Amino acid sequence: MALERTLSIVKPDGVQKNLIGEVYRRFEQAGLKIVAARMMHLSLAQAEGFYAVHRERPFFKDLTKYMSSGPVIVQVLEGENAVAKNRELMGATDPKKADKGTIRGDLAASIEENVAHGSDSAENAKIEIAYFFAAADICPRTR
Ligand code: GDP
């Protein structure tokens, strides 16, 4: 198994509903370590840049408007198979299809307002981490 890092965001609905602690509890209980974190209110341009790969999707405009609608908290998670583990903890994009016990299955309101973002591959994780954090912002956890 590989020690990996992944980019996670508690989205505006998650912050608004006071779910930061609940989401962090799930990361920590699953053995993922938070090695960088930052609260920010994304501009529309920042949200568009982050989701540039979805530019052609029909929901791009709604998604970027929603992601810039309120504060988010962005974090880097580190652990064995962190990318897949975080995706497992989040569950399916659509909360109606997400398993019970997952972040989206338990806490999300809709396919758009689905509480959390997580990188979908190790390659994208590197790109997404670099979008928000400089190398010096990340604090490797040795114990
Ligand atoms: P993820 O990797 O599970 O987050 O899913 P995607 O990469 O496919 O989509 C990115 C984000 O766009 C999702 O987490 C949702 O917030 C939003 N999204 C996905 N599908 C839809 C949709 O059909 N309609 C709307 N309004 N938003 C969507």
Summarize the model shown:
Homotetramer. The chain is built from 7 helices and 4 strands, in the order E-H-H-E-H-H-E-H-H-E-H.
Main attributes?
about 140 residues; Alpha-Beta Plaits; 7 helices; binds guanosine-5'-diphosphate; alpha+beta; single chain; about 40% helix
Task: Assess the beta-strand content as a share of residues.
Answer: 15-25%
State the helicity in percent bands.
25-40%
CATH superfamily: Nucleoside diphosphate kinase-like domain
CATH class: Alpha Beta
- Main sheet characteristics: 4 strands, antiparallel
Structural class category: alpha+beta
Overall pLDDT metric = 97
Q: Regarding quaternary structure, how should these chains be classified?
A: single chain
Rg, rounded, reads 14 Å
Present as ligands are:
guanosine-5'-diphosphate
Q: Could you list the spans in which at least 5 consecutive residues all have pLDDT below 50?
A: none
Query: How many strand units?
Result: 4
Q: Give the helices and strands as they follow along the chain.
A: EHHEHHEHHEH
Number of helix segments?
7
Which word captures the global form?
globular
